Amino acid sequence: MVGIVGYLLRNLSTESNAYLFDQLLEECRSPYVENEVVRIPMATSSALGIVVPKDRALYDYVYDEQNSKATIIYGYAIVEGKRLSAKEINGLKENEFVKLLEKVDGSFCIVRVENDKLWIATDWLGTRPVYYAVLNKGIVFSQCFWSVLRFFKEIRYPIKLNDKAILSFLWFGKIGVLNNWTFVEGVHLAPPGTLMVYYAESNKVHFHRYYEPRYEIKIKDEELATKLVHYAFIKSVQNTLNIIPNNMKKHICVFLSGGLDSRITIYYFSRLIENLKAITFGTKKCDEILIANKVAKSLNLDHIIGIYELEELTNYIHDHILLTSGFAPISTTHTVYAAKMLLENNCLFCTEGFALDLTLGGSYFDRYLDDIKSPSEFISVLFRKSSVFTVNELLMLCSTKLKQKMLDVLKEFVSIVQSFDGDFYNRNDKFFAYTRVRRWTLYGSVVLRNFAETVMPTASKLLIEVISKIHPKLRADRRLHRRLLIYLDKRLSLLPYNKTWLPPIFPTSLWKGGYILKKLNDVITRITKGRVGLETSYFDFDYAIKYIKSWRTLLTETLLNRDSLIFRLGFLRFDEVKKMVIHHLRKGGYGEKLAYIITLELFLRKLSNYLEPSINGQG
Fold it and tell me: Which of 103, 255, 447, 502 has the fewest CB atoms inside 10 Å of its own CB, making it the most exposed?
């Protein structure tokens, strides 16, 4: 929600410009902390500024009012170990900027305005999302999706829902909305690793892709791979810490789970920072807390534990929709709870093992990849792994207008898969990096930035450049996770791993026994309704909407309400959704699917605040 916002328009009076920009800035404010707001002096019909949590964000800006030039960096851009300044960028020509971006690492969004030209640059993975819309009168851009809609409302521009994006959210929700679509037609997400250049004279945007990781099989020795990852990882953490002011380093917190990603990450930070805090959250019987506590004690860290009841997570539903723009399902509402822990514990900066399960290998690799014989079979496997609903379920649930988009959405999915080259392991890796990580996993970090700054050494180009050269079979099944832990600190490899309940020092060939043990626990927990056994997820949504009163109330108010917008606007069929709800309440098993439908409904309700006097004739 917080971040950079602005526009370049034609024929806008000074008075209108001031009022309009104030409204957009207001939408970007974090409602949880004191905000710092910067308005940069611009020409009459232009605006540029940034809203961030005060003393809890990394940003830099500079402007040259005489020559109508200004630059803002939100986040941190690192070149040769040093933080890049807005002043350095403000004087560059376009070709010089592109060459510089090829060398830049970090997590950033850079916006530069020069007279009637706009530049927007994203880091290689697009970790600081920015949305934009090109209209007849110019361009509007913002890192807050809602401020773009507020812009539409203020200039009385009709908002039209994007049926393909809505269908892709329901169908392929496990990897997020496809491509750079959003739920509103004409509003796009800026692509990753790209410099966008907008020319006011032609009212067009040009795209320069300056970076994309190349996956090559160069490193086949496991010991060598482990050492190279170690050196790249520690250098990435050091580079990240170098850009944080010394007086703020004592306020860094690391989210620690029962998994291997955060365990590896917190090890490096604990060796470089004093007074580091580990934060873990979950339900009282969550295995994440039990395991994380052992890790924190092993590293002698101050461990902060937040325990919630599933009932209370309904208190964060509307915050979740606000902060994720509706692009992440409400089954991840616990992220808002975690974010508020940052405020309670005076954490100005935070980090986690972001996306390391993908880049280092593990949860997205399966042995099935060895058996795939053709590209079409590969597409079929990814299709099944990415789908929330089956085709038959969508045909029953969806209205005619969404059914008519199914072929278009399927073609888009296939096109994305086909755009990646290499062997099937590496295609799989790149596919999930540019879909699930960028359009699903990332929204956790987006939420956190409304409370504290996030640093992301696990997503650095420095690290990905090493990992992308390692043979994929060394990365599969968390082989490198295991070897790296043993290399770093054998004690950490002797502690249980939440996915198997076995210490990762055990050979991966034995992990299957751990998976079976966990499944047995899940069966016992379900039969006894939680009285016996451990909870193995942050949020068992399947259980919550079946047994927890507040969640069942939400279910009734959204999916069992004929006046809900998903039905009124003709997206889904009430009777079929009702059947799915009844089936779940009787037998369970549809929690994830229902979470996506409820999320869509809540997004539409939030969206209705920007539509006047009705839903613009859409339904």
Answer: 103
Residue 181 · residue 162 · CB < 8 Å: yes
Q: What is the pLDDT of residue 364?
A: 63
Q: Dmax of the chain from CA atoms?
A: 72
Grade residue 363 by pLDDT with cuts at 50, 70 and 90.
Answer: low
Rounded CA separation 69/77 (Å): 20
For residue 184, give both structure tokens.
């509103």
DSSP 502: S
Whether the pLDDT of residue 366 is over 80: the answer is no
- List the strands of the sheet with 3-9, edge to edge: 35-40, 46-53, 3-9, 138-142, 131-135, 188-189
Return the DSSP state at 193.
T
Instruction: Say if CB 574 and CB 563 are below 8 A apart.
Output: no
Kindly state the tokens that stand for 228.
Answer: 């190279």
CA–CA gap between residue 17 and residue 257 (Å, rounded) = 47
* Neighbour tally for 514: CB within 10 Å: 18
* CA pair distance 609, 615, nearest whole angstrom: 10
Report the distance separating Cα 343 and Cα 201, nearest Å: 45
pLDDT tens digits for 83-116? 999 999 998 998 999 999 999 999 999 999 999 9
> Residue holding tokens 């539903």?
317
User: Is there a contact between 304 and 277 (Cβ–Cβ < 8 Å)?
Assistant: yes
Pairwise CA distance, residues 243 & 320, whole Å: 30
Listed residue (174, 292, 252) closest to 538, CA to CA: 292
Q: Write out pLDDT tens, residues 203-233.
A: 999 999 999 998 888 899 999 999 999 999 9
Q: What is the pTM of this model?
A: 0.95
